[in-house]
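Kindly inspect the following:
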Amino acid sequence: MTGQRPKALAAYGVLAGAAQVVDLGDLGTWRPKLVASDLDGTLLDSHGEITARTRAAMEACWDAGIPVVGVTGRGPRLLDSVRHALGDRGIGVLAQGGFVVDLERDEVLRTVGLPREQAMAVIEQIESVAGECIAAVEDAAEQAEATGPLRVQHGFDWPYPEPAHLLPRHQVLPEGAVLKVFLRSPTLGQDELLARAKQVVDPRDAEVTHAGLGFIEVLPPGITKASGLAVALERYGVEFGDVLAFGDMPNDLPMLTAVTEAGGRAVAVANAHPAVRAVAPEVTSGHDVDGVARYLEAVLGV
């Protein structure tokens, strides 16, 4: 788990429908003032790349004066891959909203950590209903450099080829605040683990979610893709009701819900998790057949 970090990271946890083509029909005359898209399983293909068609659709948005914001669970360790995906343009919302950066100015707009004691208490609450879990931690103290290795408990089976410290459980949590905690259960799937976590974790103490990678994430209270996107919207002077948002996994739900409730458009890709399909009013093609690009082309008329 050492060596150079690739700019493109293969997709993990993608559900069926990645190659499904959806007939969009007439999308009307509405146009967004900003496009917000999840990356893995949504904007990126299975190889973790932006296809030429998707890149062209993104450029068409910028040419029309419509910023494109990437909203991802990837942490600052993977900032280079986010830059690559977004072409070093606009604002990147990382770490489920906990780390927001202006890619063009190289300016961090938001960074939020969860105190160690609070993280420990939340982990104990989750394990009280889910049994002992295996943990990994993204250290908030390393955010400024965006190069700090992940702190991974032996046996976690982290899916990405990133720098990491393999540690025993009692050393996984650092002394200071953490950006987020990852918990994997040896007996429960990610949906069941998340459901049990939500039963016992007070949102005032922490946010819990999952991104389809086989484990759940514990985040500082109030940190969601919606709150992270709000930072970007303030920078651009855009309201949620003028946003076109795309997503595929439960971690996208706060963003998609905020956009829908404000009168904007929330779109699920065909390979989206059932919970996302239940919330998003519209569906576009899967991420391996340029689903986001197809929708953008239809909206922009290009």
In short: The first helix runs from residue 39 to 43. The chain is about 30% helix and 20% strand. The CA atoms of residues 107 and 180 lie 21 Å apart.
